[in-house]
Every structure is written in C-alpha cells, then in structure tokens.
Amino acid sequence: TSQATCLSVTEDFIFCGCSDGTVRAFSPVNLHFLCTLPRPHCLGADIASVVDASQLFSCRKDSRYPDTVAVTFDPTNRWLSCVYNDHSLYVWDVQELHRAGKLYSALYHSSCVWGLEVCTELGGGGEVQLPPGSFLSCSSDSTIRLWNIDRHNVFHKNILSNDLQKVLYVDNNMTNLLDMDSITVACANSEKAGSSVSETQQMDQNRVGIRTLRVSPSGKHLASGDRMGVLRIHDVESMDEILNVQAHDSEILCLEFSKPETGLQLLATASRDRLIHVLDAAREYSLVQTLDEHSSSITAVRFAANEGKVWMISCGADKSVYFRTAQQMGEGLEFTRRHHVVRKTTLYDMDVEPTRKYAAVGCQDRKIR
C-alpha cells in the first residue's frame, strides 16, 4: 500500500489504516504481521444492488477504494471502527481476526450538500413514485442520492446503509467521491508536494458538482443542474437519465417546475450566466423563452397562479426582483415584465407562501422582505 495514515494501539493488537481501503493488524509484542482486514465498498459501486454480504468482497480487480483515514478499536466488544475518505463509516467485528465481518456501515456525501428535495406526493396517475420518508440530495461530489428514513419500509434494502437507497453518479471521475482535504494533506506529505497540491486544487475547481435539483409536480421527473451549466432530467422510478443538455454557460443556481394550479407544465432554469430559460416539460423540455433582464447571478425563480394570472418571479445578486405574467401569443407562451423592484442588498432566496398572495425574499442584510 502506498501510505499508512492512522493507528489504533491496544494490548492485543495494532491496527494500521492505509490507502486504498486497506487495514492491517500487527502484534504489539513483536510487531509481527497478523492479517489484512476486509475492504469497504469500491468507489462508484451501485449500492442498491449490494443486497448480500458476499457481494461486498467481490469487486473487480481494477476497482478503486477509498483511503482509510481513522481507526479505533473497542477491546471489550472487539469491534474495529474505520472512517474512509469518501465519508463512509464501517464497524468490523474482529472476534475472530481472520474472519472479520461487517457489523455496521453508513455512506454519506463526501463534499458539501447543495440541495434537498422531499418527494412523496402523489404522481400523475395517483401512484406514489417513492415511499413515504424518501428524499433526494445533491452535492459537490457529483452525486444525487436517494434516502429513506422510514424504518418500517422495506424499499430496496441494501447491506451498506440503513437509510441510503441509491446513488446516481453523474460522471465517471471517481476522484470526486473522495474528500479533497484529505487528498491535499496526503499530497503535501509526499515528495512532490508543490505540483501535487496545485493539481489537487485545480481538480477541485474543475469538478462538476450538482448545484440544485427539483422533482416535477407529478413526481415522475427529477431535474438537476450542475456547476458547468448542464441540465439533466432523470426518471424518478427507474433513475434513468432521459435528458442531458448544456443549458447554461455557468452553474445552474435554481430550477423550478410550475405548479398544477397554473395549468402549465413548465421548467425554469436560472444560472450564474444571468439567463432564465423557460422549458416546456410537456414537449420534451423544448425551449419556450429565454429572459435576460438580470444583470448578475439569478438566485431564485418561482411560479405562482393568482387572480387568473400565471406569474413568474425571479431575484438575484443584482438586488432586483422581477415580476412577470404569462401571455398567450400567436407563436406560444411568453412572459412579459410587470414590475421591477430594486433593494439595497443582494437577494439570496425566495418563495411564494401558500395563499399565493405574497413572495418572501431572504436578503444578505439578514432580513426577510
């Protein structure tokens, strides 16, 4: 193994955590090698399909594994807890050192979480697309994860996590799944520290990362926008990707589906490139209109039906709130500006309250307007 990162020392054993998921055990009396413990899941594993313990030890020879970054041993129960640099946690039972078994494991995002979406509403056909207690999260680690916290639910149980049901990997770069801080430290300790650290920092800046996500009102489609401006649409039931398009020149900061009460099936995408695209979800997400009124990053877009009109409201870092109404034109639908409000501070987020009379905006000066 290329490096050792952590130790746990007791009267009976020395456990040494190493790179590539390796943990080795030694005798504290004479430092003789005793055995190598099992490794965790390989990077990029389809966790939904890991339903039998034997599958945990049957990864391909060319598989990559996360590095072990912390180990601690409980001599009373003879449990060894390991933390890996993809932010996963495993507890191994080492009653019989040469036949160690997994007691517990949990998998988490390996970088900051950008968005959450709860999706237990009825689908268009009157069927629940996902069981109660389900929600989705997206992260800078370039994954979308489906969780379920209902302990009575038997939906797609796997042996790697009690609550994580499925992971969608939006690219094939497994480095995104590793904690960049631990990689930087490892590089700094290596011989070629200068070049390695700069390469790691550049890799961090270039990583894709899913910035925002939204489930359609029917519960059938999951829209996500990444930091490179790519819009993806997934089928919620199968989690298959049905659309992948470069919608913006920079990161997509907000996605919003129109509500059923508007009578429309629209998806709005807003980005750091100052553009809002309105797409027709009923016609394979074809472009309806592009709006370029904002002069800086757009942080939120919302649809609302009020007094027989369909409104689209947007706010952004240019301190502006734009109110638009939908007009039926000869060539199709078009949103035209009705009001433009300018505040004295950056506007970070916005929502329309349930009666659809008011829009509330969260501002940089710690106030809600």
TrEMBL record:
Residue limits of the MABP1/WDR62 second WD40 domain? 113-369
Q: Which UniProt keywords apply?
A: Kinase, Transferase
Please verify whether the record's keywords include Transmembrane.
Answer: no
* Gene Ontology MF term list: kinase activity
Domain of life per record = Eukaryota
Residues annotated as signal peptide: none
PANTHER family found in the cross-reference section: MITOGEN-ACTIVATED PROTEIN KINASE-BINDING PROTEIN 1
Name-wise, this protein is Mitogen-activated protein kinase-binding protein 1
- What species does this protein belong to? Xenotaenia resolanae
